[in-house]
Amino acid sequence: MIVRDRLYDNRINSLNILIEIDIEEYYSLSKDILKNNEFQRRRVGSASSIYNLLKTDLRQGCVIPPIVLALAVEARPKIDETDDKLVQTIIDQKEKLIILDGLQRTYTIRDLINELNERNDPDTNKVLKNKLRVEIYLGINKLGILYRMLTLNTGQTPMSSRHQIEMIYSDYIRENINGITLLKEVDDQAPNNLGEYKFKDIIDGFSSYLDRDYLGLDRTDILDNIKSLEKLSIENQDKDLFKDFLITYDAFVKKMDQLSDGWSLDEKNIRLTGQAFGKNTLKIFNKSQAMTGFGSALGKLLDFKLIDEVKDVIGLINGLEDANITQDLDVLITKLDEVRSKAKKIGNDQRMYFHFFFRELFDKKSDGYLDIGKSINEAFSQYERKTQ
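Now predict its structure.
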């Protein structure tokens, strides 16, 4: 691994280094990358003829476009750091590397070497010594990774934006954040306790916050909304927006649980047209619809300068009181039932309702400011006006 060049990326405050590495060393390095980043393991099944052609090119010593990696480390290397120290940083932190651009090339390289080894091909050693160019962003924050990943993958067949965000923040599944537990889909666990959430649902909520849209980042052409990312790159200086979002939402859920004091839906006294959205406080607010509404609402409050940062909402949450919480939660369930009965796309309409609910609750200019009962009713009125 030899450092060939270095440039400082002022857009995302990160040192970009160009290294030359032989295929054998990258083969070993990529194994660790794919092993430690389970959300990065997906591969494109189509265009196999293109990748077969690439295998042939690699055997012949073709120079392919640089593979781009990122290493989010706390220490920000300086542009005049010694080559040896930069290389050592990469080696020491290799389990944290992720691929920003070149995932399919990486799979193709790995497939080629595995095939050569299986056949005891006489060209194996020669191919292993062929050189690759790899760019690595060092000291980059997670939003910078997202920004650069999206710009690099424009015009290709990219993974969805939601998947990219999952991949970037997947290390938080293993990290203890204020006692919060993030559950992976493969674990087949339901969030039944305070402080437990499905990772994919939190990602949905955070995506809605990033895009200021309760429908989130399902599209792959997010660069059409590049101005939002530009604002976020300023907002994210020296902050961890994902942690702030998660901790703030968790504070809201715990506050509602405290206020409701064991409330559960009395189905005998409340007539619904279908299944209840949730039968207790946790079941209402541990769903993606509530999280996406919360995320998009907070984003709008920030854009309108009604709050200065996400964590400001924690102070508002701590001040919430509701002497009629039992009746108000009953009303919430009936309003959500009406939404379900009116909706063409139930999930999207429920997200819209929660967006209006949280906007009302935390907007100091609204009629429902810090009033849970009023916010429940005002949100439904806004939902009706929006959908009529």
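Residues 161-387 form one domain.
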